[in-house]
Write a structure and sequence with these properties.
56% of the residues lie in helices and 0% in strands. The protein contains three helices and no strands.
Length: 106
């Protein structure tokens, strides 16, 4: 039960507020990137199935009920990893293209 706050949006939001000032980068950008990381983590956890108690507590502290879709087993991480890598590569390419076009305008 000690790790339950790390699998709930409220606990992760508070943790993000606490650890973001530890980075020397732009506060908003750091907060956004850390938040995107744990949001993707929660989404990945929410589609997994578990034998015992689940891991994703979207309504914590109001409810200790785990909400999961139970689509894949945790060992089948490639079903989640491959689409996320594709999304990352597309986003990275679009971001670089947008930054390149901004530099040419100046």
């Amino acid at each position: 039960y000690a790790l339950i706050p790390f699998h709930a949006p409220f606990g992760l939001f508070l943790l993000t507020i606490i650890i973001t000032p530890l980075f020397k980068h732009n506060y908003k950008k750091t907060f956004s990137l850390i938040s995107m990381g744990w949001i993707l983590h929660l989404i990945a956890d929410s589609i997994t199935k578990h034998i015992f108690m689940g891991e994703t507590f979207f309504l914590l502290p109001f409810s200790f009920k785990s909400l999961e879709a139970g689509i894949i087993w945790p060992e089948q991480y490639l079903f989640v990893l491959v689409p996320l890598v594709v999304i990352y590569l597309i986003t990275n390419k679009l971001t670089k293209k947008a930054n390149f076009s901004k530099k040419q305008k100046h």
